[in-house]
Amino acid sequence: MISQQFNHTKAVAQNALILEARDFIEPSSVEAQNQFHRYVEEFKDPTIHEINIFDLNGRIIVSSIESKVGQSVDSASLKVLSDNEFYLISSEAGRNIILSYIPLVFNGSVLGAVEIKSELVHLLDPIQYEMNQITLRLIFIGLVILFLYYVIEWQFVIKPINYLKKQAQNLEQGNLNEPISIKTSDEFGFLANFFDQMRAKLKLSWSRITEFNEELELKVGEKTIELRNEQAKLTSSIQSLRFGFIIVNAGKNIMMSNVAASEIMGVSNDKIDFDFLVDYFGQSFDVTDSYNRSIGYKQSVISPEIDSHGKFLKVSMLPIISEEQVIGSVMVIEDVTEAVLLQRNKEEFFAVASHELRTPLTSIRGNMSLIQDYYKDQISSKEVMNMIVQAYQSSIRLISIVNDFLDASKLEQGKGLGQFEKVNLVNVIDEIIKDLNTTAKVKGLELIFSSDKQLPAVFGDESRLKEVVYNLVGNAINYTQEGRVEVEVGVDGDYLKVVVKDTGVGITAQNQGLLFKKFQQAGKSIFSRENNSSTGMGLYISKLLVNAMHGEIGLLDSSDKGSTFFFTIPIAK
Amino acid sequence: MKLMIVEDDSFMIQLYHNLFKLEGFEVELAKDGLEALDKLKTAEKVPDIILLDIMMPRMDGFEFLRQRNKVDKLKNIPVVVLSNLFSEEDQEKIKKLGAKGFITKSEQDPKELVKKVKEYLPKS
């Protein structure tokens, strides 16, 4: 800047002075002085304070300040005369002054020089200027640093934070698909990575939840339909029940009452309420008490058959328990009139059959026996006597059939057995063998009984066990024409096993299946039996008896060489 | 020996009547419990043994036994129950009511019946 100002003053000097240099070098004439002033005025720059022209001796010959003519310039200024233009900066009355020195050259010779004193316009104090320059640079550098800092901060802090903020908002809005990534290795990179992992986990969880939710909704839908179907099924099932079904809630309100209920009680459905039920059953079934017991104590109340309004009813009151809470009670009314009458008829029939059927038979038997025992002499005809004997035997057989029939019926109902006790089965068999020995001998059969020594006692009804043994051994003798009947008894696990083996005609495979059936006698029905001493009920009753005593009975083996029957009875503990 | 037969079936009455007469008994008949009770109460000579049916109209065998037990002059007469219906409970009941024994009618021939009845007769 200073050199620019110097060049400017130089130009001023050249323009103003050099053209007239020759004249200026000449000793100052008034005219020359005036002319110089005119030039100076003409070119005067407000910044130029003073222009002096001095000769080789340093004496000012022309000056813009008249008083300066004739004075000498500073000796330092003389170096311009060796053809070196230069400038100096100095201070004058607190102002910075630039002193420019330009040599005056004419025809290659230095004639003198021009001194121009002008104000240093732009930079008053070079040190201050330099200082200012440094300050400016510092400010600039500072600004640049600030700018760079901002850029860096924006790039590395604000941007990632904004990004993460945006992504967080994204996540909040449920957009979990966009991956979160900042590719740096600093905390933000780590944070973003962490964020992304969180997003991925969230996405996975969310998709699972969504999936589960959909599945759940589907299931709930299915279950709702299922439930409705079940309810419909249940309702129509309840309606179609043949017994009365009434649901009473915890507030004694009738929630449901089916068709059978109103039919059994003979009232229309809308008439059935709690008070009606109380009145209807009266003392035969205490509805209030039963209801209270089912509601209060979770008890089921089941009545015996009650005689109500000409019908036999069975009434039950059962608590409806949901989540361990009683929410109501179900009243079930069963019309058992038919069953009761049927049972009564059956029992009556047995009583009648037992008494009314056997009484006349006993009379026949008694009278036939009486004739044979007391009036034999009075009957001369052998044939008549024979008829009497046959009538007597038939009556006995008929009595046996009736007895067996009644016995079987009782056993079928689970009745007819006495108290079970420890029974010595060997003694029982021994007794029967002795009893039947005569019969066997008459037929020329060998009757053999063999048993292990010291057999344990069995548990059962002794008289009934006798019946079973009598039946099996009796049958064996009956159906064997020659040979022998062997009876064996031994331990078989927790049982004693009795085996009865004969050398009889055997039973065909076809007829084996008919054994142990009612009224069967090895395939021949009661109407076509060959042997007239049997009722055809023996094996059937034996099976009922053995089963009732928790044993088994059956045919082990049969051929034309004979049959083998067995039965088992549990050993007493 | 005097024997009373309490039985509602006329055929049976006849049979037993014949039988015990043939065996030398003095036989008195009653068609049911009530008639038997009346006859016994008014009888000058009570029987040595009573054969009693169970199922009878008006008053059955059980009730007869109960009533008999209330009458001093009757309660020591041995009673043998003749019936075709002997359930376990019935047998218990009969024993409790003080009957000497019971015989299933249809299972016995007359001669055997006489033999059994004689066993129940008081030893004199």
From TrEMBL, chain B:
SMART domains reported for this sequence: REC
Pfam families: Response_reg
Keyword Cytoplasm applies: no
GO BP terms in the entry: phosphorelay signal transduction system
Residues annotated as domain Response regulatory: 2-120
Gene3D superfamilies: 3.40.50.2300
UniProt keyword annotations, A-Z: Phosphoprotein, Two-component regulatory system
4-aspartylphosphate PTM positions: 53
Transmembrane portions of the chain: none
UniProt name for this protein: Response regulatory domain-containing protein
